[in-house]
Amino acid sequence: MTGKREVAPPVELAVEGVRYQIDGHPLLHGIDLTARPGETVGVVGPNGSGKTTLLRCVYGALRPTAGRVLLDGADAGALTVKDRARRVAVVPQDASGTLGLTVREVVAMGRSPHKRFWEQDGPGDARRVAEALETVGAGPFAARRFEELSGGERQRALVARALVQDPGLLALDEPTNHLDIRYQLEILALVRALPATGLLVLHDLNLAAAYCDRLYVLSGGRVAASGPPHEVLTEELLAEVYGVRTRIEVHPDTGAPNIVYLPLDGNSRTTAG
Amino acid sequence: MRLRTVAVLLVLAAALAASTVAGLALGAVRIAPDRVFDIVVGGLSGERRTGAFAAIIWDVRLPRVLLGAVVGAGLAVAGTVLQALVRNELADPFLLGASSGASAGAVLVIVFGTGAFAFGMGLPLAAFAGSMAALVAVYAMARRGGTMTTGRLTLAGVAVQYILSALTSLVLVLSAHPDQIRSVLFWTLGGLGGARWDELALPATALLLGTGLLIALARPLDLLLAGEEGARTLGLDAARFRAAAFVLTSLVIGVLVAYSGAIGFVGLMVPHAARMVVGAGHRALLPVAALGGAVFLVLADLVARTAAAPAEVPVGVVTALVGGPFFLWMLRRSTRTEGITG
């Protein structure tokens, strides 16, 4: 409970020994992960390494087969659906089936965890929604039907929806997937600047290195490495986990590791987990 | 409430008044609108008018028009809610088998049991149980494997609807029920001809309570459109809410079908048209769909009893002749936009 103040304080996240299996197939083999309040943590790894499954365990779409997810030290599995939604907001990869809701209506859904089911949105909510739409550059298409938008426009609207949710933890599943490079940078900078703790699944390793405080590299449902980007992203690790040859240097302008991918060489190729 | 919604509701209320007057004036005997007005106003102010016209209007046409308005509104509301529950615009109480389930339940009670149990509520209760069972069956079949496609939903719905209609017809034909063929037509294609004043209270109550409650639940209904996982991350336990909403919707469908038979496509077309006018947010959508459904069914019933006069066409035939092509048009559209599989 946050009392009068609506913005939840940033959440401290701890994932302890989380396993998940479906039909006897283990997808996660005991993941440990932490994010300090306000920290921006990236989860990277090849396709099928368990990134999205881990994220879904964190935001409660999946119940871990074993292990716990702790929000500020309290077991998230014991929270009601609504209490959890007040603290954790999610930007999914995409959404559909909205039967003609407008972008503004979809974004306004983010206010729901703070409302009774029969309660209507007030002027304060409308203002928050308008601000969030401006923040992600979705103002010009706020009145259009959500389903008619391009993938990138939809993604920005979903970010706005998460913003008005006032979360303590923001979980994003490949938030830059459909976006132009300009919006990729804007959205990542926005997430970093928010007071909320951020947990991001990212494909692009250079963006992950530039915008995350710490990274977890998943491989075959296990944590292969974790730590600050410059410690984690090494040529050896990427060869082992992704099966690619790279050149990694600290970029003089950004100070972040900069990865250059080299053409595949049949002899040096290792198989990705 | 937005100005646009209020304007649309006012226009629809005027349309309902106009179609009510038309429903009272037209038929085997034509009565001039000003006479209709006199008789209705006179009747309402307690003055007992005698004469053939007064009897036709007061005893036959008015209860029929009112039942049509109630059933049309209820089916449109039920269709709107079903579409949100399955996140598919092709849902309709009839196409998902709920109306046929209600008919089957009602007929089983009429033929094998007695409608008198449960304080005379046996018929609507059996219809409710039938509609609930059909919806649960269709939903479970369409969801097998975790995802629901338009193809599987509509096929499961149509199959269940056929099976239950066949069962209804079979039971009626084999029973010693007098006037079998007419009751087969009533239960499978609907009819408002049997409307009586003393049987209006229950459907009207079900409509008003059900619609009121569902409008109050507009927010969770909207959240369902974010999908199972999306709704959860926005604070709604979708599975639990959906179960409760299925029960409530089945109740409305069951009570209406118990008095009108299974009338199709109202719950398909009206919500779609309403969405085009006021959008998909349920707080505005549900009242607009309710009034629109009332207007539509009053007019459809007017056509049903005048088009082939003195013979009467089952009202479900009229709604199907309009709604069937509409369904095909929507199916074509949804196939184009979402891709159809399974």
From TrEMBL, chain A:
Molecular function terms, GO-annotated: ATP binding
SUPFAM superfamilies assigned to the protein according to its UniProt record, in alphabetical order: P-loop containing nucleoside triphosphate hydrolases
Keyword ATP-binding carried by entry: yes
Domain ABC transporter: residue ranges: 13-245
Keywords of the record: ATP-binding, Nucleotide-binding
Record Gene3D superfamilies: P-loop containing nucleotide triphosphate hydrolases
InterPro entries: AAA+_ATPase (IPR003593), ABC_transporter-like_ATP-bd (IPR003439), ABC_transporter-like_CS (IPR017871), P-loop_NTPase (IPR027417)
Signal peptide: none
Protein name: Iron complex transport system ATP-binding protein
Organism: Streptomyces avidinii
Automatic annotation (TrEMBL), chain B:
Domain of life: Bacteria
Primary location: membrane
Protein localization: Cell membrane
InterPro entries: ABC_BtuC-like (IPR037294), ABC_transptr_permease_BtuC (IPR000522)
CDD domains: TM_ABC_iron-siderophores_like
Keywords, alphabetical: Cell membrane, Membrane, Transmembrane, Transmembrane helix, Transport
Protein name, UniProt field: Iron complex transport system permease protein
Native organism: Streptomyces avidinii
Native organism taxonomy: Bacteria, Bacillati, Actinomycetota, Actinomycetes, Kitasatosporales
